[in-house]
């Protein structure tokens, strides 16, 4: 018997593995939250499968998403990144990654962890939505609008409401698995 999955991941083994093992699982670890935030910012305007296929290249290029190290990147490192064909070579997104790492550290300093900060927006527990078909999930919500606005106020770049909502979905702040999906009740 075949497991029912959300329609967006069907027919691609990498997508299915990501869906089955990661997407929508609550993440409370700052390092993983940062990785997803950066991947989501690079995804803006592109498909998620493009980012997934380049994920290991991103990890290598960005020092395994070590936000403390990324926060210190200078122009030479950013120029090197723009020559790396293994990642998305977008000057504004590379610069935003450095800016976001710096803002991330400030939030950690203020709140003790980025996780504590971001999960306060959902009172510390995932919001379980009832999505019948993945295409009916909203691209953003008033909650992602508020989080986006707060992140921007704190100096983050490429964190529009749609990017933020995708981050919330990926890190399990909201459960937008289709109600018939085998993962819906598991996460």
Q: How does this model look, in words?
A:
By secondary structure, the protein is mainly alpha-helical. Helix content is 52%, strand content 2%. It has nine helices and two strands. The protein has a two-stranded parallel sheet with strand order 1-2. Helix 2 crosses helix 9. The longest helix is centred in the middle third of the chain and has 21 residues. The chain starts with 12 loop residues before the first helix and ends in a 12-residue tail after the last strand.
Regarding quaternary structure, what we see is single chain
Mean pLDDT: 96
| Estimated radius of gyration | 16 Å
Structural class: mainly alpha
Give the percentage of residues in beta strands. Answer: under 5%
Low-confidence stretches: none
Which series of helices and strands comes N to C? Answer: HHHHHHHEHHE
Please count the beta strands (DSSP E, at least 2 residues each): 2
Tally the helices: what do you get?
A: 9
Please give the largest β-sheet: 2 strands, parallel
Q: How widely separated are the two ends?
A: 21 Å
Helix content: 40-55%
The order of strands across the largest sheet is: 1-2
Could you say which overall geometry the principal axes of the C-alpha atoms support? Answer: globular
């Amino acid at each position: 018997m075949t497991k029912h999955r959300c329609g967006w991941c069907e027919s691609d083994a990498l997508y299915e593995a990501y869906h089955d093992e990661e997407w929508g699982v609550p993440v409370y670890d700052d390092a993983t939250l940062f990785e997803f935030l950066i991947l989501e910012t690079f995804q803006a305007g592109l498909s998620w499968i493009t980012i997934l296929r380049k994920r290991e290249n991103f990890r290598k290029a960005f020092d395994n998403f070590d936000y403390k190290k990324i926060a210190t990147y200078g122009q030479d490192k950013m120029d090197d990144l723009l020559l790396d064909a293994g990642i998305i070579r977008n000057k504004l997104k590379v610069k935003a990654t450095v800016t976001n790492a710096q803002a991330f550290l400030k939030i950690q300093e203020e709140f003790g962890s980025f996780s504590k900060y971001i999960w306060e927006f959902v009172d510390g527990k995932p919001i379980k939505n009832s999505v019948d078909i993945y295409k009916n999930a909203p691209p953003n919500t008033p909650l992602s609008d508020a989080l986006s606005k707060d992140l921007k106020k704190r100096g983050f770049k490429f964190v529009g409401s749609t990017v933020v909502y995708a981050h919330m979905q990926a890190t399990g702040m909201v459960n937008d698995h289709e109600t018939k999906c085998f993962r819906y009740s598991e996460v």
